[in-house]
Amino acid sequence: MQTxxxxxxxxxxxxxxxxxxxxxxxxxxxxxxxxxxxxYRTYSDGMPQPQQVVTTDGTVLFTSxxxxxxxxxxxxxxxxxxxxxxxxxGYLGPDYTAExxxxxxxxxxxxxxxxxxxxxxxxxxxxxxxxxxxxxxGTLVFTPEQxxxxxxxxxxxxxxxxxxxxxxxxxxxxxTDPEEIHDLVAFFAWTAWASAAERPGHSYSYTNNxxxxxxxxxxxxxxxxxxxxxxxxxxxxxxxxxxxxxGRWSRRIGWxxxxxxxxxxxxxxxxxxxxxxxVTAWFFLVVALLFGIQATLGAAIExxxxxxxxxxxxxxxxxxxxxxxxTWHVQLSLFWTAASFLAAGIFLAPIISGREPxxxxxxxxxxxxxxFVVVAGTLTGTAISTFGPEWAKGSPFFDQQWEYLxxxxxxxxxxVVGLFLWIAIIFRAIRSRLRTExxxxxxxxxxxxxxxx
Length: 453
Fold this sequence. Notes:
The chain has helices at residues 18-44, 64-76, 96-114, 120-129, 144-162, 178-196, 222-249, 275-306, 322-353, 360-387, 409-434, 442-452, and strands spanning 52-54, 60-63, 84-85, 88-89, 133-134, 139-141. It is mainly α. It folds into three domains: 14-45; 52-223, Cytochrome Bc1 Complex, Chain D, domain 2 (Orthogonal Bundle); 269-452, Cytochrome c oxidase-like, subunit I domain (Cytochrome C Oxidase, Chain A, Up-down Bundle), CATH 1.20.210.10. The strands form two sheets. A four-stranded mixed β-sheet has the order 2-1-6-5. Helix 3 crosses helix 6 (178-196). 32% of the residues are buried.
């Protein structure tokens, strides 16, 4: 006997006009197209990293490997959360690109004056803006004055980072290894060179004359001023046009209050709580704790800006230097926000679907445990990286990565795995509802937003 097949469930029709869907799709495609083009231009037209930097007599000052090592040291020790490079980073310490550019310019100007140059200012600008990079061989030539400035600043930064003091908001003797100092200064020197040397075929540097430094002719170009004004004007005109269109034709576009269905809310006592929703209470507790710790760290960071040397009589920098406090502060802001998304998604999924799969709470509990591991591992790893013991160098568990994403590599991977587990939990909970809905209705939009996160 053949069992009759059950009739497939009809999908809920599209709740909005297809015109809105097409408009959103157009904005989506156009936006990501522009982002893709800009990302491509960022890499294809970025400042070149020379294979080696030599003096006029062929002596090698530093190599591409030294520059990369210097960048890794800068990130590993949390210095991007203290100072900045090309304007990116923390702002308690100096911008090392701008500082190297200023100090090297002053040192070169002193050499030119000592040599009896009639117009040292003009000679300095010409020297710093002349691009001596041979793109075919990857060799960059420094003048004797630039080479002398590099050696001088290597000593300067050795004194700065090697000082047995917390007066800068850093731990005492942050970096004392001469090779690490050399590589770190090579990184600074490369960014300073790219900010002043003119891009081939143009009258501005690889960084559009940023940072500003009048000593080397780094002033805003006409293009910067024009495009900045045009972008601001386009923003204001676009907003004005949007409000004007909606004000004039609001009856024909958008949703009207008369079309909105009436909402009816159940009392809290009448709403059944599923096991996975009960687990989210622990998520929200974690969110509150992380937010509280982040706010406390924020207070410590602001106190550093008022008094570097003392925290109400206590030398805080010996146990919680500024760069570590800011690293934790930034990472915790990401963690409690992410944890809020995780909890909200798990809590809303049964409401959307009207049911909860078996053992969903087990998966939610596992995700909570994974969140704890990633947070604890990140905070521990970045602290060890900041203090810089020899055994932790290069470890994927401890080495900090990029600005605003300082998680060491292992914790980055586990965070991504946790997010995939979360979206699997969401899909598992609302799968039955998705089968009955148009792919642009609210349940699907909820799922798409989870994928975007």
